Amino acid sequence: MGCVASKGVFVQSSQKELPDYVSPDDIRLVQESWLLVQSDMDNVGLIIFKRFFDLNKDLKRLFFTKLRGDSMNIDTIETADFNDEKLKMHGRIVMEALGAAVECLHDSDQLTVLLIGIGERHMMYGVKAEMVPRLWPAIVTTLEEQLGENFDNKTGKAWERVFHYIGSKVMQGISAWRPKK
Q1: Could you read off the pLDDT of 75-96 as tens digits, one per residue?
Q2: Residue 129 falls within a domain, yes or no?
Q3: Residue 36 in contact with residue 147, Cβ under 8 Å?
Q4: The whole model's pTM is what?
Q5: What's the CATH number where 133 sits?
Q6: CA distance linking residue 43 with residue 129, whole number of Å
Q7: d(CA 40, CA 29)
């Protein structure tokens, strides 16, 4: 399949490109491990976002309109749960974008365009660049659980380097976005 648009320190730099972050072996490890989780994207995405919001209750306000549950109002947002079906749908969209990024790891130019575009769209929703790294703990913990023995230290480090690249380009898109005049 071709490249299609479908806990560390993050450096937001438009100067660093994919080979500055990841090796060919990192790409291989990430793509092989992705094959093991992609068949259950709905469940994996749901787990990631439930964990993300458990860790980042202060960010739930950004998602209130899109994901709110029946018993949720703006005053109870930090303690109430989002609607699981809506959260699963959002998780699927994010997992599909992550899958597209994983597929594009051999095409740095296409991947960069994809990720900067994602950042620009997230800016319009009120996401700030410094929020992007906060997704990593939820992703890495979920990948580790889902992959089990297939998630060794080398695979974890490869994912971390890939996510650092992804995060840096999404943050670049967030920072570069300007409203159209």
Answers
A1: 766 766 777 888 899 999 999 9
A2: yes
A3: yes
A4: 0.83
A5: 1.10.490.10
A6: 27
A7: 19
